[in-house]
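thread: overnight batch results

M.L. [08:02]
morning all. the overnight job finished for the chain we discussed friday. pasting input first so we're all looking at the same thing
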Amino acid sequence: MPISGIPRTPSRAELIEHLVKTRIAGDVATPRENNLSHYRQLANGNRNYWLGLELGDRWTDEQDVLAVMAERVGVNDDPEYRHGQDTIDPALTVDGLNRLAARLRKAADGHHRVLFATGHPGGLLDVHRATAAALRAAGCEIMVIPDGLQTEEGYVWQVADVAVLEHGATLWHTHSGEPMRQILTAWERTGKQLPDLVVADHGWAGYAGQHGIDSVGYADCNDPGLFIAEAEGTVQVAVPLDDHVVSPRHYDPMVAYLLAEAGL
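M.L. [08:03]
and the structure it wrote out:
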């Protein structure tokens, strides 16, 4: 079923060209020094960079984190490259979209219960909204979160089928897993069935996967947690991309490709 506002479906080659042109992938805006700083913070045990996951002492070497990011995202694998531009391999982005599409197809075929959430509403809200609309049209239940949930950062709301964090009348950027914890805990307290699938990003996806729910989503090259979780099998799919480019409309061809690959 076509989703209003999404352009025709690009081919793989056309999408790769578009991703590079809009800097969703290719030479992205995130500098190398920021990437390495985040990898170091994760390795040093800073939970703000664990994205709702429990990594224990398995990832205490920054070079191991870099190796995962080079393999799964396409950042420069040279540990001596410390400053300058870093990259996301657009072919890996499309490969991730293909894996995500397969999991969405499974959800559609099984009429699964699906929860959508984002910690990057400025960039990814409409990506999730369009995907939710397509799954609803295919017979899935798009889950509605409980009212009255709150974290130290703000209120847990739902906008256009997507759970978000609200703070000061503004949709809030967060990497925390706490909003997802609040949702799942509230459902468990009342005996409501949990989602079959969470489609999200950042701590929303990480915490859901850690909780044992099938979890898929998007992550930037400075957010290694979800790629580590994918490597360990805690998260099923992590799609590498710049999660906040200059215009959210730049993601539309990507969504069109994703939905077409999923047969939605």
